[in-house]
Design goal:
Layout (H helix, E strand, L loop, with lengths): L6 H24 L12 H9 L7 H5 L3 H9 L7 H5 L3 H5 L11 H8 L46 H8 L8 H4 L21 H8 L38
The site of one heme C (HEC) has 18 residues, from α3, α4 and α5.
Length: about 250
């Protein structure tokens, strides 16, 4: 019976038996039990994490002793930035106040979030650290717990840096932001509470681009047919209206 089995099958079976034996031996005798644990979170990992020192205390913990800073911050621009984002993990300090956390006074610290960066969302306050009141510490003019600028920002680019820089290189470069947006003064102080208007009709753009519009330097279209019934900005980005191939 055994003789009928071809030689190569015997060899392969022998090899498979060795490998299988090896795997089983490794599984039950060689590998530490933590490595063959098949639960979603291995026991040993859970134990290791639980045993760690908790480094952060959380903003509520600071309130017991620093109510002033909490109140100030909760009303200001930095309400969404937690205490320990700036002061570092401070649990040790909450248990023993003599071990003081760091207070980041250097310019580099604030610049980490506020330096101009093209990829930051529109409306996020950004400065150019090289020209924005250089050399002085940011906290001489801005209270870190309620960083209202000491005077109202002058330029829209202070917070809409990306749109402003896109527009600079566009056919609309010389058209001021307020030609198309009516901006209440309070928008620059409390931007989310009062928002500027945005153009709403085709006629608005037609004011410069319609055939009968007086402005000479603006290329003309037939307002009644061009782009059918769609709003102009469904096809042209108003801050960078693309030039046509023919021009
Ligand atoms: C049990 C009370 C207590 C708690 C809770 C507490 N602090 Fe303090 N903190 C103090 C005391 C006391 C001082 C020292 C004040 C002094 O010497 O002027 C201090 C000082 C500080 C300072 C100033 C350090 C410096 O260089 O002058 C910072 C920053 C600070 N705490 C941050 C925090 C943060 C963040 C939390 C929450 C995670 C927190 N504290 C929670 C009691 C507390
Ligand atoms: C945006 C970063 C930032 C955040 C958020 C922040 N702090 Fe500060 N904090 C600072 C800086 C910078 C200083 C140092 C100011 C100085 O000395 O000019 C400071 C100083 C302090 C001081 C020393 C006394 C004072 O008022 O100057 C305490 C206490 C303190 N912070 C507690 C807190 C607590 C509590 C919170 C959370 C409610 C918090 N901070 C949130 C940046 C921050
Ligand atoms: C972890 C990121 C972070 C750090 C660090 C940080 N900020 Fe801010 N800052 C913010 C956020 C978020 C806002 C609110 C933006 C908003 O409302 O859209 C803000 C708003 C501001 C504004 C309001 C500007 C305006 O007119 O709208 C000023 C000024 C400011 N921060 C200054 C500072 C200063 C000074 C420091 C350093 C002590 C600092 N920030 C550190 C995140 C940060
Ligand atoms: C000499 C005082 C002074 C210093 C120092 C200073 N700022 Fe300002 N900051 C101002 C004034 C005034 C404004 C509002 C007018 C303007 O836009 O320039 C302002 C506005 C801002 C704004 C709102 C956007 C804007 O440009 O209007 C941010 C964000 C800001 N500062 C962050 C910082 C940071 C971060 C530092 C440190 C690297 C810093 N400031 C240092 C005075 C100062
Ligand atoms: C202090 C910072 C700041 C300044 C200065 C500022 N803005 Fe804004 N702006 C914002 C923020 C924040 C938003 C809300 C962004 C969001 O919700 O995504 C916003 C929204 C807008 C919107 C959109 C409104 C909507 O309904 O979608 C327009 C338009 C606008 N700003 C135009 C301007 C113009 C024009 C200027 C200059 C005259 C200006 N802003 C100056 C911060 C500012
Ligand atoms: C030629 C007219 C025109 C000019 C000039 C213009 N905008 Fe706009 N803007 C619009 C229109 C139209 C929309 C609405 C677009 C939409 O809804 O898709 C808009 C939308 C916006 C929005 C909200 C949507 C977005 O793109 O984030 C902001 C913020 C904004 N503009 C800021 C500015 C600022 C800042 C300037 C000056 C640097 C400026 N705009 C100049 C026409 C203009
Ligand atoms: C359905 C998409 C669409 C809509 C909506 C639309 N356009 Fe256009 N627009 C185009 C295309 C595609 C071109 C380039 C081909 C052409 O010249 O017809 C163009 C070209 C233009 C030109 C350049 C003409 C020239 O001779 O150089 C202007 C100016 C213009 N559009 C303004 C507008 C205005 C203003 C509105 C709103 C009243 C608008 N567009 C709506 C798609 C559109
Ligand atoms: C205040 C007048 C004015 C308003 C309002 C205006 N534009 Fe323009 N637009 C111009 C001028 C001027 C140019 C040409 C600049 C140049 O070629 O140097 C231009 C260029 C363009 C171009 C590029 C055409 C080409 O062939 O290069 C398009 C597309 C355009 N605008 C679309 C719009 C849309 C969409 C709106 C409404 C959101 C709008 N414009 C509102 C004045 C205006």
């Amino acid at each position: 019976m055994l003789k009928k089995i071809p030689e190569q099958i015997k060899r392969v079976s022998f090899l498979i038996a060795i490998i299988l034996g090896g795997v089983l031996a490794a599984r039950y005798f060689i590998l530490p039990s933590s490595l063959v644990d098949t639960r979603f979170h291995r026991d040993s990992t859970v134990q290791r994490e639980v045993a760690r020192n908790v480094a952060f205390a959380g903003t509520t913990a600071c309130g017991t002793c620093h109510a002033d800073q909490i109140t100030k911050k909760s009303k200001g621009y930095h309400k969404t930035v937690s205490c320990e984002t700036c002061h570092g993990a401070a649990r040790v300090h909450t248990e023993d106040p003599s071990q003081k956390p760091t207070a980041p006074k250097g310019r580099e610290f604030c610049v980490f979030c506020h330096a101009y960066d093209h990829s930051r969302p529109t409306g996020f306050p950004q400065i150019n650290p090289v020209v924005h009141n250089p050399l002085k510490s940011c906290t001489t003019c801005h209270n870190p717990h309620d960083p209202v600028p000491p005077e109202t920002p002058r330029e829209c680019s202070a917070c809409h840096a990306q749109i402003a820089s896109i527009k600079t290189a566009s056919p609309h470069a010389l058209i001021g932001c307020t030609t198309c947006h009516t901006v209440p003064a309070k928008h620059k102080i409390s931007p989310r509470s009062v928002t500027p208007t945005k153009p709403e009709t085709r006629e608005f753009c037609g004011g410069c681009h319609a055939k009968e519009a007086p402005r000479q330097d603006a290329p003309k279209i037939d307002l009644s047919t061009h782009g059918e019934r769609f709003l102009c900005w469904e096809c042209h980005y108003p801050h960078l209206p693309e030039r046509t191939a023919s021009r």
